[in-house]
Specification:
The structure is a homotetramer of 422-residue chains.
Chain A: H1 9-13, H2 21-24, E1 29-33, E2 36-39, E3 44-47, H3 50-53, H4 62-73, H5 86-100, E4 108-110, H6 116-131, E5 136-139, H7 148-151, H8 157-161, E6 170-173, H9 187-194, E7 205-208, E8 211-212, E9 218-219, H10 222-234, E10 238-242, E11 266-269, E12 282-285, H11 305-318, H12 323-345, E13 352-356, E14 359-363, H13 369-379, E15 382-383, E16 385-387, E17 393-396, H14 404-419
Parallel strand pairs in A: 3-15, 5-6, 5-7, 7-10, 10-11
Antiparallel strand pairs in A: 1-2, 2-3, 4-12, 8-9, 11-12, 13-14, 14-17, 16-17
Chain lengths: 422, 422, 422, 422
């Protein structure tokens, strides 16, 4: 595929320098459907990024689209602050029936403002309020958002520097496998907690991702997560699972922590919870933590009702049985095989792959290779991103609804991009 | 109108205690159009709150609705991260042609995540980065948002307490008329700045609302704003106008600061910028402040393309000439007359009213009266809110597109509610 | 007097650039007695600085010297940590009998480490612990010390910048007469406290000097101090009087707040409490505030027993009757007359003087004049310092024990220095 | 020895509850000489605590006493702020000739206020200023002082809680042997530094004690210190050695870091630097770090000239040759033998001992035993303290000038106390 450099002028002259993805993918996109995006020059792209995990059901999923158009056409409430609406009730009831009850999860549901970082801010506030302590433990290479509360528990030095103030009240601990097995799990964390002279401010909570997406597709083992949950309980710290990117089925089960069999105290959801890529987020917590006063945390767009409509439609369409989970695990196996083959084809690259469900990472010995591969993949019509502190990992995040054929096509392009970036 | 208590069960059992508006307005809303909302029991409400200013063009405005439906039907990109899209380009070009150029405003445009607090967080980060200082001055009774950065410059003690950590790096100064003319404007602020022994950490920026909506409809005079802008320039502080609630025509002109003839260094927009009540926000700044590195501030829902579509449609429909501004000022005069009449009818209430454009406040000597009035208004079919630190001010925030007849009807209900809450 | 530049070599080559007084007074001092210091070249200086108020009883006061030598000769405990010693008991009993009981002051006595800043750190810790809040209000141009807790409530921008971290948890309020009568006292402070939307973090305490020595000899009126004490009580804030420089008789009475008739919750003493210029400090507080756990605040040199000996000797020698207070007020009147005469002699200088007891300041229209006067005074054999944020005030701080003749001589040198710096 | 409960009344009624040592040692001490203290009831105590290391030359050492008395008698300057004095010059020259030059140490000398915590505050300020970063790394079980800057890098949870504000800008790392060899040295620290996604704020400096006295007599190996110094250099962090308790010969050499062959960027000294137990402290740093502006850090008692006199006398008496170091190591060997014998006598106690020079710790399996031993030792006439986060270590800190006979006597009392606390 030959791509003519698009006319980016207004983006270049008017939009801030902060823009990023449009630099890696210099096209002007116009339409999208399922796993395909189309630019204004008629090029088609296979999307292995899926809105950074916000499009688990693909672009403009027809089932959700129908529900959305119907709602808009009949003048359903679009903007409802946190007023009770029929759309919100339908979502809440569906979420309870399809998600919470079958999993025996006791959570209360909070609408904290429709972005991930807002869900994290609400989670951190609540944890601090509940425990009366300021400190929160996060993990190396964590990513939780860009507002000051979330940024303080995010690992990336470049993003942290943007704060313009010292980020405090957070302490990083080693994520699973940070020392590649050389150090027993939680040795450092537990010792700091038990030693009255350690200097660690007693944490109100621990915030963790089960798979670190931005951090380089670092996968926590179920036993590590269980040990963490046990440590939190033993030491009176709340466990917050940030499931914004890994929830909504990305790893197979609806919640990514289900496999480990743990019940976090607080859970954040965003990205794909709305189903159609529209802003929505939730903070879930055990009922005894529902210590909020009315209006203590608010936000204008908490009641993004069109997203409630597509959210409920997505739950009804995909989560009333175990089909979606099975399919995701099967597609994941397909990815794993392809990545294994890439490694086998190029033993000199020292390629390592890792993942769960439909989130996978591919790392090379040469830390600049991932970016080259992604750039070549774009030229070949595949949208694929890198992650990790040095962008050293190719990150595969296709829609969960991708067909085996599309998945195969994308994996073949990836293999070719690896081959052609020697 | 008699209202049967609605079946709120799932809201009460599943949704967090943090919910607020649904408590004042115990109805389950189903549809909305223009200045009317309809609950599932068939009651109609006249809306004088307009999504806290997010619905300046009314609920489900038909012009915007058409554009939105067309876009969705043709599978325009819904979720685009910060990729270049045709919808985003159309918005940027329209914003430039309709808003920035005619006003000779040189701003660069940043999409910081689609909520107001995210726009404020980006503004504060940028100001701190640009000046290399941490401290930001805000004003008494300011409201800027709920994430930690924004909350630190928000005045409300109840909301601040929710942070769970000490909120620092901000210092409040008296807003216009805080001492009812007893103290010269900026006497305290300027003295602190010029006195090398004052103990004030030199601010990177000042953040201000031209009219404090949440703070009690406190209206800054143009000359006060000009003096503030001059002070900022003289003392090397950036001036941030948070125009999230007062921008997009709420006070008459598109930007609320136009009347004062100032050009802030940074401006935040959200709420009505999307036009249709869908999440969207912008941070605008002078080109020399565009110091962001690519991706230094990001967020999943920056590219809420359906909102870009309705945003562009709204600008094209309402802001290509001076009609909207004129109309808003005329409607505002209508409100002022009605409030004046309410005061005259009940001299014993000591009613004070104040406002600009279509944002007005009505305050009584008895500080509990406003809540009683709003409650009675709801029973009479009018949605109206209170504001101020003690909810002591009735706040009028109708859609800018409200008809004179609807406006009159609402004002008559308000007058009746005042009468009936003796 | 002609002064040969002294051999400062080791000071210049080995001592840090941070040294300060030795720059204004380029002599190498060898001996001292009463109000006189002698350098190694045989020059004599009249001392109007008295160790920044640490030498209220003059240099090497013979009464205290005798007590000290006796103690050292008999091998009394020199260093006692916070062990009980006979010297400490004698001091405590004397302090109780001579200072606390006659004034009906109920304070408990803490030995917090022998420097002023340590006494302030202990006071702030205790106030925060007692109230469970972080914030402390200080005043414009306050000076409380150089360690991080004290520095955060100190006004001077230059000294604050030395912290290397943002100084937070403190908010400055205008000291008495900051606006020269244009603004009612405490208007701003009280309004911030009563307004639930003001953005002020509720303070645990207020820390104040009755006369700001470093800040420019700013004298708080008794009625202002009484209003402050009343405000603190009304608003549940602890009142801390930092009497480190103004206590021990500097303003006449033993405590500088006695004149106002207030009883602060916490008082800090240092500088002259040891009597002989040796490090010692105290933090006093009402018994109900004695919430310390054993050892919760400690320090190696809390038990500087030689200072306890001279401290007790000073109290016994000077404070068992009202003689010292009367004499200080009389000497103060002598100073006031001389300053008045200087002003009258040079009407063009716009000289303003202010003070209480034996602390006085002289300010000129030309803000550089004070430094010139002090420099000329040194050449004429008078040690005198400047203060204020721009060193714009000549500061008179002679020993309380100075003879009328020495005082007169110094005042004549001062007048000459003013005359000769035109 | 039978001890009559002393009359502690004024201590109990007037002194704050914060007092600590006087609770363990309920005697009223009157005189002291060498390694003996005498209470007012005629009891004699052998002192194995030596003012927490402030009395390395014993109580009221006659050589220093003579110099002090001479100085006081001839009216040498007692209190000199930071003016140049002959006493200060003599100290500086002696310090240069006896301490710095022979060791080829290039340090500038700062007098930061005469307590240890003030020296640490100055060191931290300077490091932050030099590097333009806020964060400082400290170690588990570190002790650096009680003012807010020092407390933030101190490990003890009980003392940290006294701050009343969240202590931030510090991060603890594991001290040597924290994991008893299970984890490679600096694995965690170095990984955090090299990983751009670790979440560690880049430190300006690392502050360390070579032997943690308060923390439980934890002895860092020379190779660990060398690796730390190398890490600091490699990663552009300043190395601060807090030698307040371990310097001045406590471990053998004058500076405790000499054995490791490293040259820290900044060194703090206090406690025994004055020689006679009078308040004095120093902050030393490499000349290129002397970035202070004149007066940027100050303090009233920086010029405690009597302490300069005894400090110079001590250096001249004990440090002009290698005698003191040799003797300390020999005495240390005597201690080690005795502790070994105690362990051998009671194999069931699992006693562990550790130390260097004349600082030793003895730990038992039963963590309450140390306090019992110290209490019994007091009854037997030996002053000995415990340390460690749970006071689980008996701490031996005799004067360096103790005679072999006195040392032997004390060690025998200790052995007896162990025996009698079964």
């Amino acid at each position: 595929m030959t791509i003519t450099p698009p006319a980016l002028s207004v983006f270049e002259t008017l939009e801030s320098e902060v823009r990023s993805y449009c630099r890696s993918w210099p096209a002007v996109f116009d339409r999208a459907h399922g796993s395909r995006m189309y630019d204004e020059d008629g090029h088609t792209y296979l999307d292995f990024f899926a809105g950074a995990g916000a499009l688990n059901y693909g672009h403009n999923n027809p089932v959700l689209k129908r529900a959305l158009l119907d709602y808009l056409e009949r003048d359903g409430v679009t903007h409802g602050l946190d007023m009770a609406t029929t759309a919100k009730r339908a979502f809440l009831e569906t979420f309870q029936d399809v998600v919470l009850r079958p999993r025996d999860l006791p959570y209360k549901v909070m609408f904290p403002g429709p972005t991930g970082t807002n869900a994290v801010e609400a989670a951190l506030k609540l944890a601090r309020k509940a425990k009366g302590r300021e400190s929160v433990v996060s993990f190396t290479n964590a990513f939780h958002g860009m507002s000051l509360g979330s940024l303080a528990v995010t690992g990336n030095a470049f993003k942290r520097a943007g704060a313009g103030i010292p980020l405090v009240h957070g302490t990083p601990m080693p994520f699973d496998n940070y020392f590649e097995g050389r150090v027993p799990d939680f040795l450092w964390f537990e010792r700091l907690l038990e030693d009255q002279g350690s200097g660690l401010n007693t944490p109100a909570a621990v915030i963790v991702e089960t798979v670190q997406g931005e951090g380089g597709i670092n996968v926590a083992r179920p036993e590590w997560l269980r040990a963490l949950a046990a440590l939190c309980e033993r030491r009176d710290m709340l466990l917050i699972v940030d499931d914004i990117q890994m929830g909504c089925g990305r790893t197979g089960a609806f919640f990514s922590f289900e496999e480990a069999g743990i019940t976090p105290d607080i859970v954040t959801l965003s990205k794909s919870i709305g189903g159609y890529g529209m802003p929505m987020s939730l903070t879930l917590f055990k009922p005894e933590l529902d210590l909020w006063e009315p209006g203590e945390h608010n936000g204008t767009f908490r009641g993004n009702n069109p997203a409630f409509v597509t959210a409920a439609a997505a739950l009804n369409a995909y989560w009333t049985d175990g089909q979606m989970e099975k399919q995701t695990l099967a597609r994941g196996e397909q990815v794993a095989q392809a990545l294994r083959a890439i490694g086998a084809e190029h033993p000199e690259l020292g390629a390592q792959y890792r993942g769960r469900g439909l989130v996978w990472g591919l790392e090379f010995t040469d830390r600049t290779r991932a970016s080259a591969v992604a750039a070549r993949a774009f030229e070949l019509g595949l949208l694929i991103e890198t992650s990790g502190p040095e962008s050293e990992v190719v990150k595969l995040l296709p829609a969960l609804t991708i067909t085996p054929e599309d998945l195969d096509e994308g994996l073949r392009i990836l293999a070719r991009a690896v081959r052609e970036t020697a």
